[in-house]
Amino acid sequence: MRFDTPALPNPIDRLQVVGQPVDRIDGPAKTTGTARYAYEQHDAVPGQAYGYIVGAAIAKGRIESIDVARAQAASGVLAVVTSRNAGKLDKGAFYVAKALAGPEVDHYHQAVAIVVAESFEQARAASHLVDVRYVAGAGAFDLAATRASAVAPAREPDTAVGDFTAAFAAAPVKVEGDYTMPDQAHAMMEPHATVAAWQGDKLTLWTAIQLVNWGTRDLAKTLGIPKQNIRIVSPYIGGGFGGKGSVMADAVLAAVAARVAKRPVKVALQRALMFNNTTHRPATLQRVRIGATTDGKITAISHETLSGNLPGGMYEKAANQTRLLYAGANRMTKTRLAVLDLPEGNAMRAPGEASGMMALEVAMDELAEKLGIDPVVLRTLNDTQVDPERAGRPFSQRQLIECMRVGAARFGWSARNPKPAQVRDGAWWVGIGMAAALRGSPVTKSGARVRLDSQGVVTVETDMTDIGTGSYTIIAQTAAEMMGVALDQVKVRLGDSRFPESAGSGGQWGAASSTAGVYAACVKLREAVAQRLGVDAASVVFGDGHVSDGGRRIRLGQAALAGELVVDDAIEFGDLDKRFAQQTFGAHFVEVRIHAATGEIRVARMMAVCAAGRILNPKTARSQIIGGMTMGVGAALMEELQIDKRRGFFVNHDLASYEVPVHADVPHQEVVFLDEVDPTISPLQAKGVGELGISGVGAAVSNAVYNAVGVRVRDYPVTLDKIIGRMPSIAA
Ligand code: MOS
User: Fold this and answer.
1) 468 lines ligand 1 (CB under 6 A)
2) End-to-end CA distance of the chain
């Protein structure tokens, strides 16, 4: 099915199942421990041996020698694989880091060997006996020092409308600030893990991956085998956040080790390896400049950003939201990328916006204060209903003002004292801050197969994944609505490359795209049902497990009495994304409390108001938003990969030293969804929300900190050491 004109009324609009806050259908399996995650696929294939990865002890240089003799001779060891016996390994199309070093080492903790043994303990013990000698080379580890060598990425040319320089110079009121965002880790609960098994030249992997079809593509290229020979199975994933986009070292090395050891091999990255071996959100150095008239109209706005990566790696798109969020006749953005020899930077929840809005939305707060205009009012004054770079391209939906209006009313924004450091509650300074949120809502081709059996049970099969997001549930809701059956009459099977290719989980496109693919397949199934029953597909009604046609009412399963009905289809998207700017919007409100003596910062309450098209399931969507808000608190106040700039690695590479918020750090969160449908997105008129929830949060926290104590920190995270010396006096 092609979707290239805005949605017309269709069976989803009945909203009997779609749009309902139903519990996750995969919840019981997860809470009873019967959902099998990658490392728990004990019964999938017999004879599984254990692989243990040895990470490089240098960041840059080469391996002079590897002596594996002692490891090889250790108890229970079946094989030791290094670049010398791994066979030829290429790279995939997505990540640039090689899964296995040798002789060159490209980054710290890049795998140099994998030890395979009968037990995990034997593999781990033997890994310490692998004797690697390195020749360390010089590397670049300091982003700020790379500025002169940074270039504009080919895919991200500078943007310019009007004359920013002249307009900024002439602006009566202006703000200008440098903001720094550190490297951050996904730190998902489930480690990267894979069980790999060969049968002849056919390879099966049970692995944790967000995009199954990227995995088969990238692993085929890496191993130099046809992708048809690879099956990936990934039914449950314990968090990804962009860190499990495609196959990584666990998958590649499990596959190679299984080939060498002639045994199925299971590998989980040990926690302390994950931070340097896999990917992270790359640090950015950002500069934002905004010029305005004295009555608060933006006349000039610019955003420049620099990030670093391994050669060929991706850049962080931290300037991009500034092209769309506010009006302003004169504007420009610049994105720069430098070569760094740190582990690979890649997508992490709302890549681009999550970092960029932490600068832009603080700059807006600074501008509001300078103008003496309320921050909500300033943003409202500079709203735009068209793409500010292309006036002929309207937003498909843009309820930013309504998000801010509703949020301000419900949060009690009017009680905020705009003057900082005025409100105390005992020993605590109290501050309130807000920020706008914008995040793209892309959609991409997605396929599904649907089956109908004689009992009236509908089964959906697609290689879509559920990374904890609720895919199982919203897909079941879509099929139930389309086929007119109860939710418990739908079975959903996900995460298997034998199923039709889907959009996968990434870029906030998963929910909108995959449900549209299921819609397309269900339209076809309805036609097949009508044909079998000899009724008119256009006029019959599917409901209550029956098909009704005027006076006739036929049980749905009747259509499959002569044999199961099976159809495949995919949704493909036209150019509506070119004609319309398609984005999700939100407004975040945060109250913080800062201890007057110690500078300890506590978030007291948070609220997000979101406009993101039709909300397919308010319960799973809320969970996505509060997860994003929690991650935003981490970004604002805690998260920072500390770089050893001499040796080139992330020092705090475990969950004890890489701090993320825990329950006690996030006491009260509220989420409001505005009523919205966006007919330009898909037949379901729904957009993703998984990344909207984090966009803007960090800025709202930072703005609340400023309101509490009058200290502006532009260097994230906002930790107490950065405010303690500048806190207001509490004497007298
Ligand atoms: Mo996402 S950070 O594109 O999984």
Assistant:
1) no
2) 72
**Does residue 348's CB lie within 6 angstroms of at least one atom of ligand 1?**
yes
Q: How far apart are CA 648 and CA 655, in angstroms?
A: 20
Which tokens is 565 given?
Answer: 């009905």
572-582 in b/e form (b: 16+ CB < 10 A) is bbeebbeebbb
How would you class 44 by CB atoms within 10 Å of its CB: exposed for 0-12, middle for 13-18, buried for 19 or more? middle
Return the H-helix or E-strand segment holding 305: strand 298-309
293 CA distance to ligand 1 middle (Å): 38
Q: Taking phi first (over 0 means left), then psi (-120 to 50 degrees means alpha), and beta for anything else, what does residue 625 get?
A: alpha
Structure tokens at 720: 């107490």
Residue that has been written with the tokens 């209903």 in this structure: 385
Whole-model pTM: value is: 0.97
Amino acid at 11: P
Q: Percent of the chain, pLDDT > 90?
A: 98
Q: What share of the chain is helix, strand, coil (3-state, %, to 5)?
A: 30, 25, 45
Q: Is the CB of 243 under 6 A from ligand 1?
A: no
CA-to-CA separations, 540 to 294, 459, 548, in angstroms, rounded: 62, 21, 6
Please list the active-site residues: 691
- Which residue of 691, 692, 694, 695 sits with most ligand 1 atoms within 8 Å of its CB, as the best mutation to test the pocket? 691
Atom of ligand 1 nearest to the CA of 244: 4
pLDDT band, very low/low/confident/very high, at 731 (cuts 50, 70, 90): low
Which among 386, 389, 408, 434 has a CA at the least distance from the CA of 583? 386
Please check the confidence at residue 663 and state whether its pLDDT lies above 60.
Answer: yes
DSSP state of 151: B
What is the per-residue pLDDT across 681-713, written as a single tens digit (0 to 9) for each?
A: 999 999 999 999 999 999 999 999 999 999 999
Residue nearest to atom 3 of ligand 1 (CA): 507
Q: What is the pLDDT of residue 664?
A: 94
657: its two tokens: 């030293």
Pairing of strands 202-207, 230-233: parallel
Among candidate residues 312, 321, 263, 280, the one with its CA nearest the CA of residue 106: 312
d(C-alpha 51, C-alpha 267), whole Å: 5
- Report CA(243)–ligand 1 centroid distance (Å): 7
pLDDT digits (tens, 9 = 90+) for 162-171: 999 999 999 9
* Residue-averaged pLDDT of the chain: 97
pLDDT tens digits, 187-240: 999 999 999 999 999 999 999 999 999 999 999 999 999 999 999 999 999 999
Ligand 1 contact, 347 CB (< 6 A): yes
Q: How far is CA 241 from CA 164, 165, 248, 297, in A?
A: 35, 38, 15, 37
**Residue 174: exposure state from Cβ atoms within 10 A (0-12, 13-18, ≥19):** middle
SS3 546: strand
Residue 360 — φ and ψ, nearest 5°?
A: -55, -45
Q: Is 631 in the pocket of ligand 1 (CB under 6 A)?
A: no
Which strand ranges, in their side-by-side order, compose the sheet holding 458-461?
Answer: 2-3, 565-573, 446-452, 458-461, 490-493
What is the number of the ligand 1 atom nearest to the C-alpha of 350? 2
Of the candidates 483, 437, 414, the one whose C-alpha atom is nearest the C-alpha of residue 585 is 437
CA separation for the pair 19, 29 (Å, rounded)? 23
CA of 353 to the centre of ligand 1 (A): 12
- Choice from 192, 248, 316, 348 to test ligand 1 binding pocket (greatest atom count within 8 A of CB): 348
* Axis-axis angle for helices 353-371, 697-709 (nearest 10): 30
What would the two tokens of residue 254 be? 């499990």
